[in-house]
Amino acid sequence: MTIEAGAHQRGGRRIRRSGLVVTVAAVLFAAACTGSDDDADAVDAADAPSAVPSVVATTGIWADVVSNVGCEDSVSVTTLIPEGGDPHSFEPSLRDRETMDAADLVVANGLGIEERLVDTLEAVAAEGVHVFEVAEHIETIEFEFSGGHDDHGDDDHDEGHDDEDGHDHDEDDGHDDDHDEGHDEDDHSDHEDEDGHDHDDEAHEDEHDHAHDHSGGDPHVWFDPQRVAGVLGELADELIHAGADADTVNRCLDAYRAALGDADAEIAEILDSVPADRRIMITNHDSFGYFADRYGFEVVGTVIPSTSTGAESNPALLEELAEIIEHEGVPAVFSETTTGDADIQALATAAGDIAVVQLLTGSLAPAGQDGDTLIGMLKFNAHAIADALG
Amino acid sequence: MTFLTDPVGWWIEPFTSNAFMTKALAGGLLAVLTTSVVGTWVVLRSLNFLGDALTHGVLPGIAIAFIVGFDTGLGALVAAIVMVSAISFIPRISPLSEDTSTGVLFVGFLALAVVIMSSGAGANAGDLGRFLFGSITGVQNSDLVRQVVVAVVAVGGAVVFYRAFFVMTFCEVQAEMARMRPRLTHGVLMALLAITIVGSFQVVGSLLVMSFLIAPPATASMLVRRVPLIITTAVLIGAVSVYVGLLLSYHHRLAGGGSMALTAVAILFATMLIRALVHALRPGPPDDALPVQMLADSR
Q: Which of B67, B233, B278 has the CB atom closest to A214's CB atom?
């Protein structure tokens, strides 16, 4: 069965031949449009021959922590997610994959916060690169969904941890439950939890399962300096294992742990100006659970009802939050630098034109600005929160 | 311009010296093989919108499976089957056209996925984005095995049903008269499309699957006329897109999935422009604008 094309048949063969030329031309065109790639070789620090181990950190926050524990250039740190980038939505390139594969150690936050890196991190680990997912080694707060928390009326702000016992941890094996010091609300100067080292190794072995276990805890662990201090020992072990000089790292570790302890005390002091009945936060996405837990605040609601920035708000939730704001007399709500603030601005307007205060969440401030280190960022936020609520 | 001055270093070495590049290439090539074979019929039958709808229609299935901790591929397949069935069911019980029902289900399923991911259950599950763009940087052997299975099914199905697809596409009336059951044939094509999308989204993402379904076959249809040639050319163009896209991502730190999709689309536009230019400069009969399906001298 043939369908005649009549007059058009004539040009057929010629066009077909020119077709090949066209395709080749198109491919060359596509390649030619790529511009210069002179910078291609300059970026890969991991390839540089050096005695110090190369560590790739996903976020600038953990890169800062790694460079503090591996201070005095005892490690070379590369950051994957560019400054100001949202760890929830960063998409890696194949060059990033190469950087990770070439590293002696990859440090990620974990618990799925690097959402579009989950599969890649898994593949990197499968290639034999050591991947240390920090949050897997920290006692996490189980994320509890409720747009506006039901218990916002009660003033018992220091429950934080206690009401966690009711929840079922899906990943108990990774946590050491008697590792509870540092969560005592009054003991802000406690930073000697040496036993950060004796976490069992289970969390390591089942890293693969964890990557797909999304019922786990809130990943935003870096907002509690005590929790960060608690995991530094393990991080230091990882750096030494990767080839960093043990004496240097141990010296750095002690200094940084002390610095985090001091920062913790200082932050508590900054926040002293906020009276107990005003320690109420409404944030953009659910990222301040650990801050609230550490400093006796309560996150009564979030505009995006998720620990990820990738979800969406809804009018009923915004209305509920506006009611809470009016009922409790909340003076300010908190937006963040890495995500848009349209919804939270609308909420603030609807709730009587209260202030919208920007906090640093998933990314450090640009280098040279206030908040360009983890400690700087935590202090920056503390000042902003104290000013807004105090 | 190192791709000219150091051709081996730019074009070859990234693949020979990095296992992950080889795996990414394998994942991408398996994806384009499948998408080009199925996508050619999608393009020839003008089912692009349906294909687009289906790539988003799988999302609620993925989202639910993801939250429940089930295999996301299976979730996607169930969602795709539900969607395809609904699209053909709605016009039978209502005056709505298939186009309209496709559109409604498209947004309906997409909205469902957004609602699920923003709900309490999905609150810790993250972002839909990773399904839309996939993870070419994290291709593992298990992904490749899945893709091989899908490629075998899709290519095998396309070979077995070649005649049926051909008749259905170019002479639907004859198909009806010859009792070739065009509805069944259409169903088979939809099933192959669903399998193609499901089999490839984990590696290249559901949005990227769409660009591979459409761009290479569409480019090929501008260059050659016979269906087997269109399929072959589409596979080649798709392969070039994957190859160049991976290298662009590698050399220029660009997102992997996006680079491949963009290359496929860039080749389409470049082909279109050059072709138009060639025709404008050449004296003789005007551009041969006849749709490809009328030039069916392939039998």
A: B67
Cα of A45 to nearest chain B Cα, Å: 14
As separate numbers, helices (DSSP H) first and strands (DSSP E) second, chain B gives 15, 0
Does B34 reside within a domain? yes
Which of A97, A117, A129, A317 is most worth mutating to test chain B (most B CB atoms within 10 A of its CB)? A97
Count the domains in chain B. 1
d(C-alpha B236, C-alpha B229), whole Å:
10
- Give the integer Cα–Cα distance in Å for A193 and A213: 28
Domains assigned to chain A: 44-148+165-268 (3.40.50.1980), 271-389 (3.40.50.1980)
Is B299 contained in some domain? no
Which residues in chain A (129-188) have CB-CB distances under 8 A to chain B? 143, 145-146
Q: Which chain A residues contact residue B121 at CB under 8 A?
A: 145
**If you average pLDDT over residues A227-242, what whole number do you get?**
96
Q: Is A29 on the interface with B (CB under 8 A)?
A: yes
**ipTM surpassing 0.90, yes or no?**
no
> For residue B3, which residues of chain A lie inside 8 Å, CB to CB?
31, 34, 37
Dump pLDDT digits (tens) for A291-332.
999 999 999 999 988 888 878 888 889 999 999 999 989 999
Rounded Cα–Cα distance for residues A263 and A95 (Å): 36
Q: Is B95 helix (H, G, I), strand (E, B) or coil?
A: coil
Domain holding B258, by residue range, is 2-281+289-294
CB proximity under 8 Å: B 168-197 to A:
170-171, 174
Per-residue confidence band for A187, with pLDDT thresholds at 50, 70 and 90: very low
**Where does residue A145 rank: exposed (0-12), middle (13-18), buried (19+ CB within 10 A)?**
middle
Structure-token pair, residue B125: 């599950």
CATH of the domain at B276: 1.10.3470.10
Rounded to a whole number of angstroms, the distance from the CA of B106 to the nearest CA of chain A is: 19
Give the model's pLDDT for residue A369. Answer: 93
Q: Residue A183: what pLDDT?
A: 40
β-strand pairing of A298-304 with A332-336 = unpaired
Per the domain annotation, does B116 fall within a domain? yes
Taking the whole predicted model, whether its pTM rises above 0.90 is answered as: no
Chain A CB contacts of B260 under 8 Å are none
Is the pLDDT assigned to residue A63 strictly greater than 70? Answer: yes
Judge whether A17 is closer than 8 Å to chain B, CB to CB: no
- Quick check: B42 pLDDT over 70? yes
